[in-house]
Amino acid sequence: MIRVFIFVVLVAFTHPADANEAHRAVITSIVDGDTVFIDPPFKDGNEIRLVGIQAPKLPLGRKNFPIWPLAQKSKDAIEALSLGKEVALSFGGARRDRYGRWLAHLTLTNERSGDIWIQGELLRQGLARVYSFPDNRSRVSEMLALEQDARRSRLGIWGLPYYAIRNPDAATLGKELGTFQLVEGRIVNAADVKGTVYLNFGADWRQDFTVSISKKARRLFTKASLYPETWTGRSVRIRGWLTKRNGPMIRATHPEQIELLER
Predict the structure, then answer these.
(1) Is the domain of 82 the same as that of 183?
(2) Whole-angstrom Cα distance, residue 232 to residue 262?
(3) What is the pLDDT of residue 247?
(4) Range of the domain at 216
(5) Are 50 and 73 spatial neighbours (Cβ–Cβ below 8 Å)?
(6) Buried-most residue among 99, 108, 141, 154 (CB within 10 A)?
């Protein structure tokens, strides 16, 4: 009986009773295009990060932080859509981020036009990009499709050079280190080095753009029947943060970061 009681207590602590699929709340304030506050709150806070998307960033008190183009428009769009209205919050993976924000999909009920998925609407308007994590990948395929439609129509951010898809030129990408980018190109060579796959986009891996997929991350690719070590010659679109290891690099931690292209 003592063991059972301890187990029940632990489950209740790990998954608060009010943090469930049916939670409903009113949007009380908007931080930016992907962060809001709700009421009533969860037990451990009321700041919500719209999971799965990245809207253009505002400084929000950060010194010398440049405003990303269309950041205010993105904030205005979510404000017009949801401020003061009740939404349903649902979860599809990790529920909190390292900042303590809740990670949720938000759905606005509209009796006349039907439910409005807020993440989907921002992507449809071209006011956000898909931004997923290995522990939170729900609805990413739907979001990628919406993003692609907006991009083809050059809506919102997709009409601006700031958000343009980059080619894998190392010199160009080297100027964008520390930023989140979408890069398209053909894989010159896919190499398995002690379990880590390196997708090389040039002849010189010491200088050219590379995508790395760790042994741990490969398990998610394999589970999705994807084998990046066989992708030599394939054209792909990769999204992620640009870092430097030899040349510019993006680390792919889950399959949704890489889209296989037909050409």
Answers:
(1) no
(2) 14
(3) 96
(4) 165-260
(5) no
(6) 108
